[in-house]
Amino acid sequence: MLSSKASCNSHGQDSSYFLGWQIYESNPFDELVNPTGIIQMGLAENQLSFDLVESWLRKNPDAMGLKKDGESVFKELALFQDYHGLPAFKNELVEYMAKIRGNKVKFDPNNLVLAAGATSANETLIFCLADPGDALLLPTPYYPGFDRDLKWRTGVEIVPVYCSSSNGFRITKFALEEAYQRAQKLNLNVKGVLITNPSNPLGTTMTRDELNHLISFAIAKDIHVISDEVFSGTVFDSPGFISIIEAAMDRNLENTNVWSRIHIVYSLSKDLGLPGFRVGMIYSNNETVVSAATKMSSFGLVSSQTQYLLSNMLADKKFTSKYMKENQKRLKKRKEMMVSGLKKAGIECLKGNAGLFCWVDMRNLLSSNTFEAETELWKKILCEVGLNISPGASCHCSEPGWFRVCFANMSHETLQRAMQRIKYFVVERSNMSRSKSKRQLISNWVRKLSSADRDEQER
Ligand SMILES: Cc1ncc(COP(=O)(O)O)c(C=O)c1O
């Protein structure tokens, strides 16, 4: 009765990433109403600097009230339906993107395509670059939503580039080449490699070496590079953020073929903490991609009301400077709080400098080095400890025991509570295993003594 797309389950909704959310929703934590409920730590949302945005709104009522110099612009905005977007908004966006990159890169608003969030921007870009059955290489671990955004409706295949904990999950030439060869053996036509920089779920920025490997690889294989930079404004520690565009410019690649095969995806969901506004974009130096993506963007436009409000906000350079600085400061403090809280429970994290989450090493809590044991631990932490965290398997990590744990979508007190819960869990667990091994020791002794008694009697 229905289309194969509607009835197939390739959307990825049944991954533990989304299942955790469903279970959380059936029993959400609330300090007053439900203090024993599940704490949501599987949502990469930035609520730490919301007060700054709210304070700006209070001081600028015209932006919300759709007024300019006191006069209503309601009619103008209500009738606006150009899929190229409001020029003022695009100008402000490119300036904001440049500011995040320390103004080392200049962006042209004509190369920008608006979309309803990075979700829509990623899918639109894939529709422009690949046909059903083509493949994209993705370094692991990767954002679980990509199975939906890149594959589901486009029919494109994802081929993982396996990265390992032995080098902090860095992308190597060898891993890229191995994935490419694997795709070829499967008769897949590789159209590009897609990275998230800063990485979701690792919370790290890419090194210049990694970016150079990627660019050289794209040149050698004649493929695209897509850099999802939605977390670029969350870099709170050194080393600083290097955008793929900057790395290519530093190699003077502007007038070479690869320049038109480098594309950026960005949104205001993470850096400004506005996922509900659905503001995303594609930036590409490829005229044909920009033109096709602009036409496709009519399936997921950003409302003119939102564009108007945000163009006013981004035009306030004093505000954006203050916001960026303060937001990074708060993220850093939060991250430190989580890292030290986990450390007190004997749990280590990958060293990170960006993002709204930690990549947490819980390998020492696994009953065996398997993904079954990871799922077993995840269920315990979700249902018994009451924390919704995302298991590495949902991010296609190739090694069991890693989890993504978010820290910016809750209050300081809730994070404190979460850290207490995890510490209690680890302590209880080790007490239990100590008393289990004590019991085991005693029963071994009892068995030994009774067999010694028997031997004595028999003699
Ligand atoms: C790497 C990455 N890309 C894209 C998205 C989707 O962002 P948006 O809310 O702008 O659609 C997310 C959301 O978590 C993400 O982590």
TrEMBL record:
It comes from the Eukaryota. It catalyses: S-adenosyl-L-methionine = 1-aminocyclopropane-1-carboxylate + S-methyl-5'-thioadenosine + H(+). Gene3D superfamilies: Aspartate Aminotransferase, domain 1 (3.90.1150.10), Type I PLP-dependent aspartate aminotransferase-like (Major domain) (3.40.640.10). Its cofactor is pyridoxal 5'-phosphate. GO terms for biological process: ethylene biosynthetic process; fruit ripening. It holds the Pfam family Aminotran_1_2. Its EC number is 4.4.1.14. Keywords: Aminotransferase, Ethylene biosynthesis, Fruit ripening, Lyase, Pyridoxal phosphate, S-adenosyl-L-methionine, Transferase. PROSITE patterns: AA_TRANSFER_CLASS_1. One of its GO terms (molecular function) is transaminase activity. Pathway: Alkene biosynthesis; ethylene biosynthesis via S-adenosyl-L-methionine; ethylene from S-adenosyl-L-methionine: step 1/2. Residues 39-422 form the Aminotransferase class I/classII large domain. InterPro entries: Aminotransferase_I/II_large, Ethylene_sulfur-biosynth, NHTrfase_class1_PyrdxlP-BS, PyrdxlP-dep_Trfase, PyrdxlP-dep_Trfase_major, PyrdxlP-dep_Trfase_small. Belongs to the class-I pyridoxal-phosphate-dependent aminotransferase family. 1-aminocyclopropane-1-carboxylate synthase (ACS) enzymes catalyze the conversion of S-adenosyl-L-methionine (SAM) into 1-aminocyclopropane-1-carboxylate (ACC), a direct precursor of ethylene. This is 1-aminocyclopropane-1-carboxylate synthase.
